[in-house]
Amino acid sequence: MDVRAEAVAAAVNDIAAVLAEHGEPLDLAHRLVRHCAELLSASAVGFLVEDSRRELQLLAATPCQTREVELLQLQLEQGPCLDAYRTGSVVSVATAADLAARWPQFAARAAELGIVAVHTVPVDSRGRTIGALNLFRDHEGAYSPVESDVARAMASFGAVGITQLEHVAAGARVQAQLQEALDSRIVLEQAKGALAQRFRVHPDDAFRRLRAQARTERRRLRDVAREVVDDLVQPARVEG
Hints:
CATH topology of the largest domain: Beta-Lactamase
Oligomer: single chain
Domain ANTAR: 168-229
Structural class: alpha+beta
Pfam families: ANTAR, GAF_2
CATH class of the largest domain: Alpha Beta
Protein name: ANTAR domain-containing protein
Strand order of the largest sheet: 2-1-5-4-3
Number of helices: 10
Keywords: Kinase, Transcription, Transcription regulation, Transferase
C-alpha cells in the first residue's frame, strides 16, 4: 500500500487543529483513530491510554465493534495491546494462525468479528509507555515499513497532543482532564448511538454533530453528550 504524503499531512493538520483550539482529548482521540483507519487500510482502530490508576482504558475506537475486542483484551489480560504496552515494542501479527497461536482466547473472538491481522504501536510520552494504538485488519498480510512508520508517527502525535492538552509537567502522567475523558467515553458513545439512530447517520457523523454543538454553545463535549443521553437536547440543536 502506498501511503500518500498529502493524506498524512491532511490528517496531521486536522488533529493539530484540536491543539490549536485547546480542544478536548476525546476529540483528538476520535480524529486520530478515524485517520489511522483511512490512512492505513485498517478495518478497525483502537486507542488506549492509562487512567489515573495506571490501568489501560479505551479512549476511542472505530468502528463501534472494536470496543468489544479492545475491552476483551483488558478482561482476558492477553492480546497485542497488552504486549505492546508492557514491552514498549511494536507488536505485529500478519495471519489468523499466528494470532491464535499467541493469544488463543482473544483470537477466537477477533475472528468472529472478521479480524485476522493486527499491528499495535506503543504510545510513549516522555520516555514512558502510556498506552497503545491498535490497528486491526480483516485481511492477512504484514504492514509495510512505510505503513509501520506512519503508524508510529500517528501514535507519537497522539501522545504529544494529549500531553500538551493536559499540560503535564515533566515526568508526570496524563491525569486530570484525560481521566475525565476516559470517564466520559461511555456517555459519549451512548449519545453518538442515540443521534445515529435518530437521524439515521453514521456514528462518525453523529460525533461531528455533537462536537459542533459543543463548540457553538462553548460547552464541554461530555455535557452536551449527557443531555442527549438524558433526552434533554432538542433534535434541532444537533441537526447541522
